[in-house]
Amino acid sequence: MTATIMQALDTTIANVALPYMQGSLSATQDQVNWVLTSYIVAAAIMTAPVGWLSGRFGRKKVFIICAAGFTVASMLCGLAQSITEMVLYRLLQGVFGAALVPLSQSVMMDIYPAEKRGQAMAIWGMGVMLGPIMGPTLGGWLTDQYSWRWVFFVNLPFGIATVLGLMAFMEESETRATVRFDWLGFATLSIGIGALQLMLDRGESIGWFEAQEIWIEAIIAAFGLYLFIAHSLTAERPFIPMQIFRDRNFAIGVLFMFVVGIILLATMALITPYLQNLMGYPVLSAGFLLGTRGVGTLVAMMVVGRLLAFIDARILIFLGLVAQTVSIYELVWMTPETSAFTIVWTSVVQGVGLGLVFVPLNTVAFATLPAQYRTDATGVWTLIRNMGSAIGVSIVIAELTSTATLMHARLTELVTPWNLGLAAMKGTLLDPATDTGRALLDQMVTLQATIISYSNDYLLMTLIGLATFPLLLLMKGSKQSGKIDTSHAIAD
Question: Which end of the chain is flanked by fewer CB atoms within 10 Å, N or C?
Answer without folding.
Answer: N
